[in-house]
Give the backbone structure.
Amino acid sequence: MPLPNVPTDFSGLDASALALAYQGIAGRMSRGLKGVLDANTAAPDHARVLGRWTNARDTWSGLPAHLDLKAREPFSLAVTKLNAVEAEVMKVFLAGAAPSPDGAAPPETPLGIEGMAALRVALDDVRSVARKVAGDDGNLKIMGLFGQANLAAVKERFARIPPALDRLFDQTTAKSAGGVRGFQPGHDIPATIGALAHGSGPDAFIKVSLAALRGPRPKLAATLVHEGSHILDRTPTVDFAYRDQNALYLLSPTLALDNAPHYEQLALNLSSPENLGPMPTGDLPAFSLAVLRSKTTRAWVRAYAAKTNPQRRGEIAELIGARADKIGEVLAGMLFNELFASLDHLMKTVLGNAVLEVGGAAELVFTGPPADRCVIRVPASCTTPAAVSGFAAELLTTQLWQSGGASTESPLLTTLITDIQKYDDGPLQDRLARFYQGVGLNKPISNASGRSPEQA
Ligand SMILES: [Zn+2]
């Protein structure tokens, strides 16, 4: 996506914040373009395009620190040059195929008859799991996951999940696509998650990915239980730690009760008990990876909310220099789009096949495309999950910044992730802080089985 033109009227804006925002996005574009050029040194047009890139880069580094009336001309020229180089790199080296970090979402196709049928079957499964939760046969499994004291509270909350989902289904038709009611096809949600709930109570809606709708039945039902627990009008859940982050034993019973993945796991345990394995145990790398995953996920959730709803930008806008009253709505929107794209990228790495090792020289090794496998090695001087995960976040954001994947400077991106509890919604700040302090201190509630082999 090209850099927006310098606005004709920026009299009410902040001249230095405006210059910084332009430099941030231009820097990300420039580093990304250089990466493409470096990967294509043998191409016939390489020397010529590299010359134009160098010229554009020099123009940007010669710009003043304030974008005021006097600087409008040189900034406009720099914008034109960089956009021209980007267009040329796309044409010459990428044949126009490369997606921009904030590229438009693919077009929505409706849920269709097939999607409606999958939802109907999954909702039957959800009701059947809810009957098991309401009865007494599942009590041991509930207490094994949530702790003895939570038995009644889990039953009460679970019973409200099927009606909440049914209400959404009543608002859904085969033609549903791109709306904000009922179930919607989730073409724009990240590939790493099957569904995404927006809001809670009467205004809530749920996006479901096509892959999830076509996936295994027990998994789809468990995913809907997870999302259904988010949309309850009273005591909606949040995500502290996901199932594959050993959430079951990382959370204290108080936090477990509010953790959506616990309800998802309960649904799986009750619908396919034959798949259960023993509860895992953890060490410093395992605890640290869990913290890194939780913080990255929370930052991703917050960045998504901030990107889609300007009312929810607040402190993050201050942190990344994206206040609309200082730099205008267009640039602010672009910086939030890019922030979300950065976190989306980091989340795919961190929640994908990531391995965290403690000891030896710090390094980051990707094998295959970034999302395939990533080894993050952190020096032994880091001795707590907070320190290890913080160091790991710094390695990841630095790599992302250098490769042209982020316009937010890596120290700021690291701060957003490592201190995410401070940037989260008010009521959550405390509970998140307690979770991060307690990781590694909670012992499994029981050593009963509670884990399916797919999580191994
Ligand atoms: Zn969730």
